[in-house]
Amino acid sequence: MQRIRKGDRVIVTTGRDKGRQGTVIRVVENDRVVIENVNMVKKHQKPNPQANVPGGIVQREAAIHVSNVALFNPVTKKADRVAFKTMDDGRKVRIFKSNREVVDA
To answer: Model pTM greater than 0.90?
Structure first.
């Protein structure tokens, strides 16, 4: 089970985008995440007439290592660490370490 998943609200903890919040768009290779409107890079793209793709310089999100982001806790309004807990019915859920609230509803 992964600590950070697609759709989670996260905060960047280090790097040039430190402090920015966003939603995880996708997880790449289990150790990198792509976050919307964070870590924007310029890519020089060749035109592809068959796929109807224009050429030029496009901006897109680049992947960030998962160690550089933390899950956003809406109760405390801060970044928080994640732990795992097995519920009474056998489900394994993620919880915030600071206040022991369940992340997954």
So the answer is: no
Q: What is the pLDDT of residues 37-72, one digit of tens each?
A: 999 999 999 999 999 999 999 999 999 999 999 999
What is the token pair recorded at 5? 């998943």
Tokens 């792509």 map to which residue? Answer: 34
CATH class of 9-47+56-79: mainly beta
Contact 33/10 with Cβ under 8 angstroms? Answer: yes
Residue type, 27: V
Q: Are 43 and 60 in contact (CB under 8 A)?
A: yes
C-alpha 81/C-alpha 103 separation (Å) is 11
The CA-atom distances, in angstroms, between 79 and each of 47, 57, 60, 72 are 41, 34, 25, 5
